[in-house]
Predict the structure.
Amino acid sequence: MSDQLFPDPPALARPLALAGSKPAPDADRSDKKNYAQRLSNHLAQTVADALRPHYPNITPDAMGVGQEAQVDVAKGRKRLDVKALDPTLGLILCVSIKTYSFRDFSPRTGKFGRWTKNIVRNDHELRGEAMVLHQRQPYSVLIAVMFTPFATCDDGDASKASDIGKSSFAHHVTTLSKRSGRGKRAVFGGTAKMWVDLGAEDTRYDLFEKVFIGLYNPDGEVRFFDVDESPPRNGRPSDSQTLTFEEFTAVVHSEVERRNKFAPTWSEPEDSEDG
């Protein structure tokens, strides 16, 4: 009964509140950039806190120390949003946090656009992150999450057959889907879910193991969409197509476990007269 009287707040309620007032889409560029950075930092803290039971040394730590901690890469050091290190294995998990918080706006024309202007830039940033990390530490599991409002699902025009007819969310998925899937190769001619596990031997260093889009409401309710799945062309994905925050963190942990399987499997011994 107490759980019903005092339900847990939505998963993103705290980071959204701590990020402060959200500027208007036509606000000064620096104000929007500062808000995006604050929100990203608090989202990183939320994700790290949720994964901490599995990775006690994950950063940022419980006190917020280690925001954008650094790790050695092929050419210098790379700042990471959320990272888990093993003293023997090195970097075992990195979660890269991206945000797309504002509708596109043109100061020159004063017109508002959709939510698509910077998505290619985000893809290029993720590609660079994956390359420098996987080249140095191919066994690490990289997860990318782009947090964006549910409103990105509501634009577009279903009556138009042209590419602009699809929602901004659908555009995000189709753009970022090519950044996901390291360690897996689809089996052509098989079912949609058939794939070969290449693991850390995959030479596609420019890919993340998994990429998600975190769709959220202003109150902090969030659902995670795996970009490996087919999105609706228009409208919001259903609950059955998305994950809760708890389900998302469980998938992240399962990816690390799958990459780091050490226990051998045994066959049944051959029968012998000696028994």
Notes: The longest strand covers residues 90-99. The longest helix spans residues 29-51. The radius of gyration is 21 Å.
